[in-house]
Amino acid sequence: MRTVRELRWAGAIAYLAALAVGLLVAFLVHLVFKGQGRFGWEGFNSTGVLEGLAFLFAFTFSLWAAKRAVRVPCTTLLTAGLVAPPSAGKVARSLPEIEKVEAFEGRLAVLTEAGEPQGVLGLEDHMVPWEQAPVVPADVAVSELSALFWKSPVVFVVDGAEVRGVITRERFLQLMGFGRLAV
Question: Same domain for 55 and 92?
């Protein structure tokens, strides 16, 4: 799973590559017509419009191909990495940590022993061992968690040995722009 920083770099590189391809194609069209195209610099003619359209189609197709190749969100790609999804650590909501199973009163909690997480209560009918729970580091981008939500309704976020919190499937869908879907 990629971090927010890696997604920003992937978006910037993909955008710049698409821009370069678009400019190269427009330049090749310009050379084919022996430099006669003018598209707003010193006038306007049909050859210049053709160069502009060649750039637009090459740039758009390159962006589409880059999005499929590097799998970044559209906003990250179209802003050249300036806008990226939040990290899992920022989105995670706090989660109670309990030392004894008898103290469990709620829907979801992390069972700890000497400060180390041992399992999760409330996820299934029994305690789920911590090793089997879906756990991600806090610096992972939220957009990278979709595969985990196909298998589990929650994802736990950790920062080293510290449990930062939990992200629910509903919260994830809201962040990704799906709002509340009828399931």
Answer: no
